[in-house]
Amino acid sequence: MQTRTLGNSDLSITPLGFGAWAVGGEWKFGWGPQSDNDSIAAIHRALELGLNWIDTAAVYGLGHSEEVVRKALADWKGARPHVFTKCGMLWDDQGTIDYSLRADSIRREVEASLRRLGVEAIDLYQIHWTADELEETLEGWTEMAKLKEEGKLRWIGVSNASSEEMEAMSKIAPITSLQPPYSLVKRDVENDQLTWCGAHGVGTIVYSPMGSGLLTGAMTKERVANLPEGDWRRNSPLFQEPKLTENLALAERLKSVGARHGRTAAEAALAWVLRKPEVTGAIVGARNASQVDGLIHGGDLKLSPEEIAEIEG
Asked: Which residues are the active-site residues?
């Protein structure tokens, strides 16, 4: 699988990376019950098929996702993948979520993630969500730059940031990458953040490129109606009418185009995202090994302009 350089870093990453949000299991923003054995098998299968990076976050499963990643890597016999994680979302003993980008909080989070992941340095450390006040975001970014100088972080980036925030942050320390949501059902970053990143040499790894499952070709109205109580998608407007019908029609067009290439709707959705030169890589989540098999060729499928127009309707 071909690789691409991520922003200003020395990281050569595959077009697809394994996303470990769902493997965190049940919590406020979780995807419902999840087997750790299935999670580890999915990670191993992704690595067997050539993916060379894993994206997680401290808050996924309230620390559990990072622990699952550590277990998966402890049993992995091949080349070690790059490990990316995030900071800024905190939790208490009751599972209540809070947010902080204060310097002392960032430093505590780094130490905790290093322990949970079982690594000496984190390959890419990202602000999960910027703060309401720019001053707090810049305080956290300054501390991350210090931790990078200390060798605990190899590269630093941000998720869910505006171009204005990135402009201010880049005056303190270079931004390696942005992680925004981007898919056929969520395109608002195309003419702002992606353009800014392309102009400033900032890498982009996009999340939810398959619309959190909407664009896989496997989602139906019946399946949406039966999502478990702990699945955050039950409350998402994208999974409710009138958007649900529109989004499932998109998935049918993806299925049709993908089938011509012997590919799945999910792989066509990934190819659509990766068509943009500003997109360095896309995060794909899988909850078991078989799901990985239906995604892997999205990184090398090339869509024609006519197929892109057909998909977009």
From this structure: 60
